[in-house]
Amino acid sequence: MKNEKDKFTIAARIKSFKYAFNGLWKFFKFEHNARIHLVAAAIAILLSFYLEISATEWVAILSVICAVFVAEIFNSSIEKLADVVSPEINPQIKTVKDMAAAAVLITACLAILIGGIIFLPKLF
Ligand SMILES: Nc1ncnc2c1ncn2[C@@H]1O[C@H](COP(=O)(O)OP(=O)(O)OP(=O)(O)O)[C@@H](O)[C@H]1O
């Protein structure tokens, strides 16, 4: 049987958008890595305008920027969840946190690689 919570309502959809924006606001306000990624993204976007990159290159740059932010948001939320589940030292929590950090590492490496492929030939 369907309960009230399962019903589609515009008000409920608007609320869930508000929760998502609240998460985004908290991410940029409290996570130090978020600010580092934000500065890197701003530099990449300014450089893209300056070098007048093509539409395809814009797609690549914006995609990797988003990928890094998405990975970092998941990493931060997994860290927070892990701290609630197990505030004490736990080898399994270490693996979970290290793997979440590895996801950020992979996307950041990809971003540097794509940035290098697009920007370096135009700069030198
Ligand atoms: N409860 C725990 N048990 C075992 N190891 C842990 C635990 N908490 C953290 N660690 C280890 O310390 C590392 C850093 O964890 P921490 O939660 O401090 O992230 P952080 O330094 O805040 O990361 P970030 O720089 O991404 O914000 C983890 O990747 C893990 O190796």
UniProtKB/TrEMBL annotation:
Spans through the membrane: 36-53, 59-78, 99-120
CDD domains: UDPK_IM_like (cd14265)
UniProt KW keywords: ATP-binding, Cell membrane, Kinase, Lipid biosynthesis, Lipid metabolism, Membrane, Nucleotide-binding, Phospholipid biosynthesis, Phospholipid metabolism, Transferase, Transmembrane, Transmembrane helix
Gene Ontology MF: a single term: kinase activity
Source superkingdom: Bacteria
Topology term for the membrane: Multi-pass membrane protein
Keyword Transferase: yes
Cited InterPro entries: DAGK, DAGK_sf, UDPK
Compartments where located: Cell membrane
Pfam name, any one: DAGK_prokar
Family from the record: Belongs to the bacterial diacylglycerol kinase family.
Name of the protein in question: Diacylglycerol kinase
Source organism: Pedobacter lithocola
